[in-house]
Amino acid sequence: MGPPSVDEERGHPNVLVTGTPGTGKSTFAAALAEEISWMRHVNVGELVRERGWHAGWDEQFECHVLDEDKACDGLEEEVGKGGCVVDYHSCEFFPERWFDLVVVLRARTEVLYERLTKRGYSDRKRDENMECEIMQVVLEEARAAYSPDIVVECPSNSVDQMHANVARIRELLDAADGSPPP
After folding, report:
1. pLDDT for the residue numbered 9
2. Is residue 86 part of a domain?
3. Whole-model pTM above 0.90?
4. What sign does the CA torsion over 41, 45, 50, 52 have?
5. By three-state DSSP, how is residue 3 classified?
6. In angstroms, how far is CA 166 from the centroid of its own chain?
7. Which residue has the higher pLDDT, 181 or 3?
């Protein structure tokens, strides 16, 4: 894969980091934003809770019901500036024009099981997320919603892999942005 092309009006590329809960999206996105001075981490899950971009709580799935319109309206200005690394477990509702690169984090089932158990997920919620990862639901959503040329699948089973992924994505972004590494 070559470097992503960047929307000239934004200046800097935007990256979407997505994957099943527990694959390390927020950790990876924060590390990428720390590594690249012009990037800002946008944690959509936190903003949904803080800014009320939801339509209440779903007892069955033990999560907020995302109001996609509120989330997109709330993110439009920030993402329009460029230089965002946005993380969220779903991806198909974001406008395709927002992102120059889509990173899908994947984890082995035993790693994901341990992470979700440590988070205190109920058996049902953990099992549903495990099934989603096994069936590659988020990866397939990303491939269907965005040009396959900008979708990058990365293993996320260890800290070493996270650092390697940050380096890989940084190389792609530096090539797209035209900025030399520091």
Report:
1. 74
2. yes
3. yes
4. positive
5. coil
6. 13
7. 3
* φ and ψ of 151, to 5 deg: -95, 125
**Mapped to the 3 state alphabet, what secondary structure does 104-146 carry?**
EEECCHHHHHHHHHHCCCCHHHHHHHHHHHHCCHHHHHHHHHC
pLDDT digits 0-9 by tens, 63-115: 899 999 999 999 999 999 999 999 999 999 999 999 999 999 999 999 999 99
Residue 3 inside a domain? The answer is: no
Give the three-state DSSP class for 54: strand
Query: What CA–CA distance (Å, rounded) separates 103 from 152?
Result: 5
Q: In whole angstroms, give the CA distance from residue 108 to residue 36.
A: 28
Give DSSP secondary structure letters for 64-97: EEE-HHHHHHHHHHHHHTS-EEEE-S--TTS-GG
Domain of 98, CATH number, reads: 3.40.50.300
* Residue 32 is assigned to a structural domain of this protein: yes
Per-residue pLDDT reduced to its tens digit, 102-133: 999 999 999 999 999 999 999 999 999 999 99
- Our CA angle for 158, 92, 132, nearest 5°, is 50
| Residue-range definition of the domain harbouring residue 102 | 15-176
Model pLDDT for residues 6-51, shown as the tens digit of each residue: 666 788 999 999 999 999 999 999 999 999 999 999 999 999 999 9
33 within a domain of the structure (yes/no) = yes
* Cα separation, 80 vs 139, whole angstroms: 24
Specify the number of domains making up the chain: 1
